[in-house]
Design a protein that fits this description.
Length: 541
C-alpha cells in the first residue's frame, strides 16, 4: 500500500518545469512538422517563454472582430482583402457632393452618422445633415490593419500604418488623419489598393477614389444630431452597431486573404521586436520598436504579396481551421476551469472523477483501445513501481496534437503550394494546438495514475491528501494554459448582463475625457462591464 501511495504522490507532486530563461527563437525553429520524429515529444517540456505562435494564433482568430481588437488595441497584422460587390458603405459629410479626395466610409450607418453635418449652416441653427450611401460595383482591393487601428490614441494602436507610411509612430501625429489617408492612398495606388480597413468604435473603409469601384446609391438629408438631446442616443447606437461584429465571425463584409498575411509577431520577419517584448505583458506589445532594416523587409514582403496576384496559396481554409480549434476547446477549458475553481475539500472525492471524465471526453478521439498505462504488466492487473513516467500517454498527445494538420504535413503537393504566410499560420496552429494537448494529456495521465479514470485501472481509493495535491496541480496547469492562450472569448461580463444591458469594453473615443491624459487602468487594460442599451444610459467613464 505504501508503494502505491508513494508512486501516486511522486506523479502528483511532479510540477511543470520552469520555462527556459527569456529568449525568443525563430518561429520556424520551434514549429517543425508536428508529425516529425525529430520533434521532442516530452510532456514536461513547456514552450519557450517568448514564443509568439500562440499570439499569432489568437490575433488571426480575432481578425475583424470588434471585441478582441478593442481589448488588445495594438494591432500586429496587416492583411490584404476585398470588399465584395453590392456592399453598402456610408459617408457622413457637410454636403451632397461625391468626394473628390480620399474619404472615410463606415460599414454601418450609425457610425457614419456621427460625421453627418451641413456646411451651409452653423451648429447653433442646424436642422439637418448629409449622409451619402455608396455601393461597391466591383470588388475593392483593401488592406486591413488589425487592432483598434482607427483609434487616435497614443501607445500603439496606429503604429503599423504610421511606420509603413512615415517610418515612425509619432504620438504628436495621431490626429493627422487627412495626411494619413492621403499618404496611404498614394502609397497603395501603384499596388492596386482601393482602400484600407480599420476599426474604432466600429469598422471603417477608407476609400481612395470614389469614381472607381463605387457608385452613389443615395444622398439623404437627415435630421441633425448636433442637438444635445440627440447626442447620447447616437453614441450608444454606435456602440451597439460595433457590438454586432464583436465576436466570430466578425465583420463579414470584408474578405481577408490569409495566404498574404503579414504579422509583426513573426520573429523571422521582425527579429528586432524580440527584445522589445521581453518581460512585457501583452497589453504593452507594440510595433514601434522595430528596426529600420526589419521595417524595410516588411515593406518588401508586403509589396511582394500585393503584387503576386490572386491565384496563389494551398487552398487550405485557414480561418475555418483556426476556428475549429477554438470551438473545440474554448467552452471545454472554461468548464474545466470552473470545475477546478469550485471544488472544495468537502467535494473533492465527488468532483475529482468528474474532472477526470471531462479530461477524457476532450481526449476521447485520440485514446486508442490499446492505450495502457506502463504499470499494467498483464491485462487486468495493476503493478505500480516507483518513478512511473508518462511515456505511455505520448501516443495520445501525438494524435491530439497532429490530427488537424497531419494531412498538410504529409501532402508534398500541398506543402509545395504553401505561401510564407501559410507556413507561419501552420506553425502557429501546430504549436498552439500541441501545447493545449500536452497540458490536457498530462492532467488526464495524472488522474489515471491516481485511479480516477473510469476506463483505465489505477489506485483503488486515493486519499484526501493525494487528491488535494492532484487538484492543486490540475489548477496550476489549467490556469497557466488559459492565461497563455489569452483568448478573448473568455472575456465576458460575469454575471451575464440582464436584458436591458449589453456587455461593454471601454472603447475609443468614449472615455469621457482626453484618453491620453488618463493614468488609470480602466482603458489601458479594458475590462468588461454591463451598460444600459437604452435611456437612461450608463456613464462610460
Amino acid at each position: 500500500m505504501f508503494l502505491v501511495f508513494s508512486a501516486v504522490v511522486a506523479v502528483v507532486l511532479t510540477v511543470l518545469p520552469m520555462a527556459s530563461p527569456p529568449r525568443q527563437i525563430l518561429l520556424q525553429q520551434i514549429s517543425p512538422d508536428s508529425g516529425s520524429s525529430t520533434f521532442d515529444w516530452n510532456l514536461e517540456a513547456t514552450p519557450d517563454t517568448n514564443w509568439t505562435g500562440h499570439l499569432i494564433f489568437d490575433t488571426v482568430s480575432s481578425l475583424l472582430q470588434h471585441w478582441p481588437n478593442t481589448r488588445h488595441r495594438n494591432g500586429h497584422n496587416i492583411v490584404p482583402g476585398s470588399v465584395p460587390v453590392g456592399t453598402l458603405l456610408y459617408h457622413g459629410r457637410g454636403n451632397n457632393a461625391i468626394p473628390t479626395l480620399p474619404e472615410w466610409t463606415a460599414t454601418n450607418p450609425e457610425h457614419s452618422f456621427t460625421f453627418c453635418w451641413d456646411s451651409m449652416t452653423n451648429n447653433g441653427s442646424i436642422a439637418g445633415c448629409w449622409q451619402l450611401t455608396f455601393v461597391t460595383v466591383r470588388p475593392l482591393r483593401v488592406l486591413y490593419f488589425d487592432g483598434s487601428s482607427g483609434a487616435k490614441m497614443e501607445n500603439g494602436p496606429m503604429d503599423a500604418q504610421d511606420l509603413l507610411l512615415w517610418g515612425t509612430a509619432d504620438p504628436a501625429r495621431r490626429m493627422d488623419e487627412r495626411e494619413r489617408i492621403n499618404d496611404l492612398c498614394a502609397w497603395g495606388k501603384y499596388l492596386g489598393i482601393d482602400g484600407y480597413v480599420r476599426m474604432e468604435m466600429d469598422f471603417e473603409v477608407m476609400v481612395c477614389d470614389f469614381s472607381n469601384g463605387v457608385e452613389l446609391l443615395s444622398a439623404d438629408y437627415l435630421s441633425a444630431w448636433m442637438k444635445e438631446s440627440a447626442r447620447e442616443p447616437l453614441i450608444f447606437g454606435t456602440i451597439l452597431s460595433g457590438s454586432w461584429h464583436g465576436r466570430y465571425p466578425g465583420e463579414t463584409r470584408v474578405h481577408l486573404d490569409l495566404t498574404k498575411l503579414i504579422s509583426f509577431y513573426d520573429t523571422s520577419l521582425t527579429p528586432s521586436l524580440i527584445p522589445d517584448r521581453e518581460s512585457k505583458e501583452r497589453w504593452d506589445h507594440r510595433v514601434l520598436g522595430i528596426s529600420a532594416p526589419d521595417l524595410a523587409v516588411v515593406k518588401r514582403r508586403l509589396q511582394d504579396v500585393l503584387g503576386s496576384g490572386t491565384n496563389m496559396g494551398s487552398g487550405v481554409d485557414w480561418k475555418t481551421l483556426y476556428r475549429v480549434v477554438v470551438d473545440r476547446y474554448a467552452d471545454r477549458l472554461e468548464t474545466l476551469d470552473y470545475l477546478l475553481d469550485t471544488t472544495t475539500t468537502e467535494s473533492l472525492h465527488e468532483r475529482a472523477p468528474i474532472i477526470q471524465t471531462e479530461l477524457r471526453i476532450m481526449l476521447t478521439p485520440y485514446i486508442l483501445y490499446t492505450t495502457r498505462p506502463s504499470w499494467l504488466s498483464t491485462a487486468g492487473s495493476a503493478s505500480y513501481v516507483e518513478g512511473i513516467d508518462e511515456a505511455w500517454a505520448l501516443p495520445v498527445w501525438r494524435a491530439c496534437a497532429t490530427r488537424h494538420t497531419e494531412h498538410i504535413h504529409k501532402n508534398s503537393g500541398l506543402q509545395s503550394r504553401l505561401t510564407s504566410s501559410e507556413r507561419l499560420l501552420l506553425g502557429a496552429l501546430d504549436g498552439t494546438n500541441r501545447e493545449i494537448c500536452r497540458v490536457l494529456v498530462r492532467m488526464w495521465a495524472t488522474g489515471v495514475h491516481a485511479g480516477l479514470d473510469a476506463l483505465l485501472p489505477g489506485k483503488e481509493d486515493s486519499s484526501t491528501l493525494v487528491l488535494s495535491q492532484i487538484l492543486k496541480q490540475w489548477r496550476t496547469h489549467a490556469h497557466s494554459l488559459i492565461a497563455w492562450l489569452d483568448w478573448s472569448v473568455w472575456v465576458k461580463c460575469r454575471p451575464t448582463c440582464p436584458a436591458e444591458e449589453i456587455c461593454y469594453l471601454p472603447t475609443w473615443p468614449y472615455f469621457g475625457v482626453n484618453e491620453w491624459d488618463r493614468k488609470d487602468e480602466q482603458w489601458k487594460r479594458p475590462q468588461p462591464r454591463c451598460i444600459r442599451k437604452f435611456q437612461p444610459y450608463s456613464v462610460l467613464t
